[in-house]
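Agenda item 2: zinc ion complex prediction
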Amino acid sequence: MKLLLSAWILSVITFTSLSALAHTQADFYPEFLTEKIKVTIKSSPTAYRSQMALLKRMDIDIAGIDFKRKLIDVYVNSEEYEKLQERRFVMFGQVQTLSTPKSPNDPRRSGVDPLYKNPEQIEQILKRVNRAFPNITKLIKAGDSFEGKPIWVLKISDNPERNEADEPAILFNSMHHAREVMTPEVALDIIEQLTSGYGKNEKITSWVNDNQIWVMPMLNVDGNNKVWTENPMWRKNTRDGHGVDINRNYPHMWGSCNGSSGSKFSDVYRGPKAASEPETQTIMKLVSNIRPVFDISFHSYSELVIYPMGCDGERAVNAEIVEPIGKKLGELLGYTPGTSWEILYSVDGGDIDWMNNEYQVIPYVLEVNSRSEGFQPPYATTRERTVKKVRPAWQYLLEQLQTRVIVGQVRNSVGVFSGKGFIQVLKKVNGQFRYYTHYKLSANGRFNLVLPDGEYLLRNGFHSEGVTSFGHLRKTITVSGSQRMHVALE
Ligand SMILES: [Zn+2]
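Presented output:
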């Protein structure tokens, strides 16, 4: 009760001065929105899903959750706070005001622990790693941000200059959302572990030798810059000042299931059209070039493993593969696994849905850090603990690449298949082959499959003018055990 009362007083004090500002500068809405307070909503197992849906309909900025205790952290302005009170949400906290530093370019005023990295520091670290490990790394500019800043990705592999098509790829990307400052640290830890362990640790050495590992520590460089200079709780990129939520901007199911907002001032604004943002396009181009078998997109916070699809009731095309691995990751980390509509709310235009639908990637969002740690916990006491806690997840996927992946190629009479074909996978169930999954072939006729033990029939197919037909190439394979398989359809 005492907490509630002080929360109310604090919010009244804050918002009195804010409404004065709002009246004099009515069209200065985005600046006004940066003045928000953090409130925690106490939900219950029975009310959780409907309350989450209501919060999304109200376009409330949901920061993170404690799934087990059904606590929901939100950032609200005065108007939204009053609406939550009207709707009889039970709120308490640790109410914290988020002030906007008055002088930009003064990182000390942003309130972010200065030990976290800004875009320039990320670039310097990547260049240093690349210089120190030239034989196993290649630093590539994957694209440019809205403001024209470089977005870097580091490739880690033996022969990093070559595209070794028989080596499966995996992608780790961080910071779609600017305020999630722990996520580049996780990516930097992956880089550090793999480079410093190469040639010393047997497992690490074989992961690097046998795969093409891609790590992007910071996608949203513009937004992160804004976190340091203007607003520690900035989430989107910086398009036209209002910004776009990059992770609602991907083409799959864009804007289609109330999993994003059409309002420019919303924190989940989906953008003017699908894939409108240079950052979104950067990931799409990278994924279509490297065709990763697995992806982890690191976010914070809530300690969740999220797998596709994002819209209510939808499941991944290869859910029988994606979901058990996601649950295993949850078990390894002590995180809650599920689709976003099962454990959070509906999401449309998210990266993992697009990757899964377009290229049958097996992708996960990992929401690192607990609710008590939040977006920006003290670096000195939290960083090492967090990156160590996450290690079993990415190491598990690398080990899956070593032991479970099927590396295949379709070849025709002149050597290599080319064209817009796919592989259809049928699984033997009760003596009959039934449709199981499919995989879009890469330009050189390559495909990568991860399949549970069993007997499968692979055959090549084509889509042409809305008609699906099948070629004469087919092969039966038995998946069992723990070794990478190579398959050729010719
Ligand atoms: Zn996020």
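Discussion summary: Confidence is low (pLDDT under 50) at residues 1-34, 101-109.
Owner for follow-up: CH.
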